[in-house]
Design a protein that fits this description.
Strand order of the largest sheet: 4-1-5-7-6-8
Helix content: 25-40%
Order of helices and strands: EEEHEHHEHEHEHEH
Distance between the termini: 25 Å
CATH superfamily of the largest domain: Spore Coat Polysaccharide Biosynthesis Protein SpsA, Chain A
Structural class: alpha/beta
Low-confidence stretches: 234-240
Shape: globular
Number of domains: 2
CATH topology of the largest domain: Spore Coat Polysaccharide Biosynthesis Protein SpsA, Chain A
CATH architecture of the largest domain: Alpha-Beta Complex
Length: about 240
């Protein structure tokens, strides 16, 4: 194989306590990301970088590698993901070897499937790209989004400040997309050298909204469980 997968999962969480290992129908949230990465059969290693012994033990039990505990200075609220990934890659380079390709997979986007991972890698190869990033269509087109001032004034609301938008039909706008945080698949040096992700030869892998849910609040967990119920999710029968 030619690639490794890195899953960042720090212990601290503001919105949801112990978010990365919160119980979802008998499995911790991070289980979903570990499983889809392993089942894609694309990776020599699926590595979790975490500052938490509890998270480390959980991840190891589901087949991921946790070869080190992340230092505390890389597990703060303002720690940059680029620094976290570079730290991990330097460890991999020193202890193992370098790999042509690296996949960053966020555990808070649990519905990313093994097929999504495989297709994003295929896109990376087909386009001869430096990086592929997963996105999903926005719920609302950004042309209809604006600011409401503290006094409730709408003077900076785009719909009213741009006369070209007034009276325009929704379907006449180009589709807009948002990063869903699920997949960043790239050449090794893109992460190692902390290159700008969007100024390089980067392409979008478009995912459906129902698999792009990003867990940040209790409501997101409720929504995740609702989606899994609709999919007749059952751990004992192989998951989603």
């Amino acid at each position: 194989m030619k690639s490794i997968c890195i899953i960042p999962a720090r212990g601290g969480s503001k919105g949801v306590l112990n978010k990365n290992i919160i119980d979802i129908y008998g499995k911790p949230l991070i289980y979903f990301s570990i499983r889809s990465a392993i089942e894609s059969n694309l990776f020599d290693k699926v590595i979790v970088t975490t500052d938490s012994e509890d998270i480390a033990n959980v991840c190891i039990s589901y087949g991921a590698e946790v070869p080190f505990i992340r230092p505390s200075y890389l597990a703060k609220d303002n720690s940059l993901i680029k620094d976290v990934i570079t730290h991990c890659l330097k460890y991999v380079e020193k202890e193992y070897k370098t790999y042509p390709y690296v996949c960053l997979k966020q555990p808070t986007t649990p519905l990313v499937s093994k097929e999504d991972i495989i297709k994003s890698f295929e896109l990376l190869i087909d386009k001869k790209a430096d990086m592929v990033i997963s996105v999903s269509e926005t719920l609302y087109n950004v042309n209809w989004i604006g600011f409401v001032e503290e006094d409730l004034s709408m003077k900076n609301f785009k719909l009213f400040s741009n006369s070209k938008i007034c009276g325009t039909q929704r379907q006449d706008f180009k589709k807009t997309y948002i990063l869903n945080g699920g997949i960043y698949f790239a050449k090794w040096d893109m992460f190692y050298n902390k290159k700008e992700y969007y100024k390089q030869n980067t392409y979008a892998y478009i995912m459906p909204k129902e698999r792009s849910i990003d867990i940040d609040t209790e409501f997101d967990i409720y929504l995740l469980k609702f989606i899994l119920n609709r999919k007749n999710f059952c751990i004992s029968h192989g998951g989603i």
